[in-house]
Amino acid sequence: MENPAQAVAKLIARLGNPSTTEMRQALVAHLRRVLDEGHASAKDLLAGPRNGLACAERISETMDGIVACLHIAASEHFYQAVNPSQSERIAVVAVGGYGRGTLAPGSDVDLLFLFPHKQTAWGESVVEAMLYPLWDLKLKVGHSVRSIDDCMREARADMTIRTALLEARFLIGDRSLFDEMVRRFGAEVMEGTAPAFTEAKLAERETRVRRAGTSRYLVEPNVKDGKGGLRDLNTLFWIAKYAYRVDDVSELVAAGLFDRKELVMFQRSEEFLWRVRCWMHFITGRAEERLSFDLQRQVAAAIGYAGRSGQAPVERFMKAYFLVAKDVGDLTAIVCAALEARQQKPRASLSRLLGSFAKRKRVRALGHPDFTLKSQRLNVIDDDAFRRDPVNLLRLYEIASRDDIAIHPDTSRLVTQSLRLVTAQLRHDPEANRIFLEILTGRRSPEPVLRRMNESGLLGRFIPDFGRIVAMMQFNMYHHYTVDEHLIRSIGVLAEIDAGVLEIEHPLANEIMPNLANRRALYVALFLHDIAKGRLEDHSIAGAKIARKLGPRLGLSEAQTETVAWLVEHHLDMSTVAQSRDLGDPKTIETFAATVQTLERLKLLLILTVADIKAVGPGVWNGWKGQLLRTLYYETEIVLAGGYSAIERKARVEKKQDALKEQLADWPETERNAYLARHYPPYWIKTELARQEKHARFLRQAESEGRTTATAVETDQFRGITELTILAPDHPRLLAIVTGACAAAGGNIVDAQIFTTTDGLVLDTISVSRAFDRDDDELRRAERIAAAIERALKGEIKIADLVAQRRAPPPRGQTFQLAPEVIIDNVLSARHTVLEVSGLDRPGLLYDLTTAIGKLNLNIASAHIATFGEKAVDVFYVTDLTTAKIVSTARQLAIRRALLDVFAFDHDKPAAAKAKAPVRA
């Protein structure tokens, strides 16, 4: 950019003798070109040298020139002071982020207009003359007008203003005013207040992080305000600048806060985060700070990431992002440790005299001579402790876990600096592995200690396979955390179950846990269950191989190792069967039991599944999933105990019928017997007693009112669902009508139980996820859905039109690409053909699928709906109109084509041409 004074002079010369209005219009037009050229130049730095910091600095430099032009025009042409008094002086100062000399394309421009005393009429005119063109340029300007006295007073009272002034940077105007403000700020505000400032900034950081999401491993992180983001780096430098009185981050090496390697880490992290943030602003055209899924792909492509070793470009980019966030966390710990040391008061003389005795006492309490306490935190006695005995690296965390002691940040830093000591010899050291197993399976919650080990880098070095999945994300909406964070959180959930916490959420798991024979194997299996993610081979099979290799190293017996390997290989089975198979079908239970084989494995797999689902993310676990798992467990337990013969099944049905007869004691005997005869055996097996009674009274009331079509609604807070019970004459398209009415009314179906009575009626129970916390609000919503279903079943409304109004085709280039898949299986059930359909979820998908199945003249016996983020997996148990399985290959191909066509409008090409859709007959 040319010299601002020359630019303004050229404008005036070109315009001749312009009016104020003409001059302002010409100035704004000129500055718009300057701004556009500056952004284009900054974007070139981002795309060419790929330097995010240089991009941010170029935008800031461009803004400096714009502000200077405006000041010259305002003070020398619009409102020139001929004989300026002492009060008619102004310094224009950049503060906040702009004060640091870095701006993203959409950042706010924070300005301080500094006056010696109270603002004058001249000063007010100059400020307005500068601000209006900035607003005309569509810039977001934050400004303040203060005297030096105002700045001192407000900085003492407000930490936000104090922080903004800490990074004040002179732009143009009276330099002596700015210098006086800086001098007084250091003497009157900063002097002696470093501890208070540090405490306030760290507290502010905690609040900000809680607001943005407490984990730095959230899969849609906030690049500016999230944990491990740019604001964390800013906070570190604010604190360091305040405490060490430095002006540039490079000075922190001489100050003793960082070593050279840590300085490079800070600079590398800052550049990367600025690169990401600037691309986000350029791509969206606004100040977007959340790195959402749709942006992740675009930023990864803009930066230049390519796929490698089974990982997509976006996954490699996000792994790099999370590793940087981890580095920022390490730097935070380093700064906190240094500040803690600076603020520590010297011991009194008596303490020094007794120090030797006190130290020996603490060492005995900790159980090892290489460790001591410092400021009530666990520390090593000297910097050679790990070199003397590398096992101390593990021992440090064992003591911290056992005694619930925080580790001193200096010691954590030393661990990171000593990672080269983690050699193959240490990895196979029996004592080191014993310690690690003790940490992993300790009675105190191992989650925080494992997280500290991971953040220091020790966990990935000691277990190299774990190191491969550190900071690895899975590009989908289902998993909320990176793979390593998910594994550590799952151990935390298991420890909660082990401690008997939250029994109401998972009562069966809590009941089983105390009596497990293979508790250690369960912890190890859970720690390893996703450790092979990101490989070309199926992660369950590859994970089992890792388990067989790692088990003996950790000191597990051959039997324990095989149990761990089996659990890892089958860790998804119970969840899959519970959510997508008909649990009332004997073949489902028999097949699952044949896989599990023993009661002990069934117990272990149940608890592992609960912990795995709960650790996926907030809201993923609910009572509905818990009930499905418990039903599968109890039904499988019977088979493994030798039950489930035809005779035993008949006895169970009769027992359930007798129990219902007791509940219907107020009915005449003949009416009770007639009602029991209306239901087929699967109804009695699949339906619990309380619901059987509700169904009986519901049918009786409908008949007394002369209705063959009726609905009832009921909420279930524990399971997080609302149940819609529907009575109607049976016909093939009934479920399509019901699902369409639910879709049109905004009901998200999570399961459907379908029963046909012997007299030709259908009794369906549709479970939809709750939309409201309050039961009265949820019931009103459910009643609206039920009313829509009744009207649709009576032909009063056209469902297809209502569903079409609610949905819209996904945008071209949508975030998630997922090829649809159809599996047709005649082995999973003895009586039904099982259709498993998976693909990209969207509003109305279930309606479209059930409509297609109805048009194929198939009867749906049961439907099981599961959604994993953006992926829908819907399973239908069907027969033809003669209640036979679908065995014809031609018919199966027609079914497959019809179901794939449901997904056709999600992609440019026909779905059938893109999908993989095996047929298992």
From TrEMBL:
EC number: 2.7.7.59, 3.1.4.-
One example of a Gene Ontology biological process annotation: regulation of nitrogen utilization
Keyword Repeat: yes
InterPro entries: ACT-like_dom_sf, ACT_dom, HD/PDEase_dom, HD_domain, NT_sf, PII_UdlTrfase/GS_AdlTrfase, Polymerase_NTP_transf_dom, UTase/UR
Annotated HD domain residues: 483-605
Record text on activity regulation: Uridylyltransferase (UTase) activity is inhibited by glutamine, while glutamine activates uridylyl-removing (UR) activity.
GO terms of molecular function: [protein-PII] uridylyltransferase activity; phosphoric diester hydrolase activity
Region (Uridylyltransferase): 1-365
Keywords annotated in UniProt: Hydrolase, Magnesium, Multifunctional enzyme, Nucleotidyltransferase, Repeat, Transferase
Family the entry assigns: Belongs to the GlnD family.
Domain remarks in the Swiss-Prot or TrEMBL record: Has four distinct domains: an N-terminal nucleotidyltransferase (NT) domain responsible for UTase activity, a central HD domain that encodes UR activity, and two C-terminal ACT domains that seem to have a role in glutamine sensing.
Domain ACT, chain residue ranges per copy: 723-805, 834-914
Function: Modifies, by uridylylation and deuridylylation, the PII regulatory proteins (GlnB and homologs), in response to the nitrogen status of the cell that GlnD senses through the glutamine level. Under low glutamine levels, catalyzes the conversion of the PII proteins and UTP to PII-UMP and PPi, while under higher glutamine levels, GlnD hydrolyzes PII-UMP to PII and UMP (deuridylylation). Thus, controls uridylylation state and activity of the PII proteins, and plays an important role in the regulation of nitrogen metabolism.
Cofactor: Mg(2+)
Keyword Repeat: yes
SUPFAM superfamilies hit by this protein: ACT-like, Nucleotidyltransferase, Nucleotidyltransferase substrate binding subunit/domain, Poly A polymerase C-terminal region-like
Species the sequence originates in: Bosea vaviloviae
Catalytic activity field: [protein-PII]-uridylyl-L-tyrosine + H2O = [protein-PII]-L-tyrosine + UMP + H(+); [protein-PII]-L-tyrosine + UTP = [protein-PII]-uridylyl-L-tyrosine + diphosphate
Descriptive protein name: Bifunctional uridylyltransferase/uridylyl-removing enzyme
